[in-house]
Amino acid sequence: MGLVPYRARRLESVISICLLAVLFLIGVGVFIKQFDYNTNQYGIQQLGVSLISIGAGLVPTGFEMLSKVEVYNSENLYEKINGKAPLYIESGFKELSTQRFVNINDRSLWMELYTYDMGTVKNAFSVYSIQRRAGSEAFPPMQLGTPQSGNPFAYRTDNALYFVHGRYYIEIVGSSESGELFSAIAEVARKIQANLAAGLDASIAELAMFPQENLVPGSIKLYLVNAFGFEGLTNTFTAKYKSGNETVTAFLSKRADSKDAEVIAESYRSFLIENGAVIKNTTSKTIVGKVMDFYGTTEIVFTAGPFVAGIHEAENQQAAEKLAKILINKLNSLNNE
The domain at 205-335 falls in which architecture? Predict the structure, then answer.
């Protein structure tokens, strides 16, 4: 009978050892987790980011890194660009990497690099074009070190440079207006072009579909969703033209086929009429029934093969109709190729 208590005590010892082993393993797991936390939730990553892999290769002459690379995703993008985050997210945003560089001799001269991975060149061009600053000037691709390759979408302001690099939309913003600082900004841009793989063979076919005569340089924009406040108009390009003293906005959106284009065009015309537009008379048989007065401006909506196209809020009906006919002819010629 005396063996029973001994066996019980032995069983209790075994159970205690097993529990201690489990607790030890849990403790080890917690310890490892503390050194392997997901830094994404704090907006910062330590590995796997394109800019990190390039490292010091982006630092311009006479400058040094002022901060480590910070990375933001769609969940915390608002922390960095509060108010603008929805535009980026609707346009296919993947990730934002940012980093600062400072002049070694003058700490008041610093810049911040914003590299938005937008997934595709179209997405990158969309946010680039929609946000183009008023009063900016084109920045020739030659000055970015890419005279015959890459995307020629680049412009500058007094203290910043903005450009598209494949699927990336990039901003480099300086602390002040300074020739020395802007030279360093341009140097960073060239290094990005040389070192950051971004699918430079991608192109945007629709840009060549607009007539070139009287086109305002740098005026083409791409609205991926809700163009002119209408949900049905997606993937819509707009361009401005000079007609005498008038500026006229043309638009086009390539659809799946001509049937889909007709459906979208009719829906958009109905949307305009529901919001106060009325059909206007025209002497052009090509666009009869497609010209509307919208609170004193002229709207024209037509189709050409798989394209929905037209004129948006023109002040002068004659100028609007003239450009509409030029655009129709251009798109029809493309459809016949």
Answer: 3-Layer(aba) Sandwich (3.40)
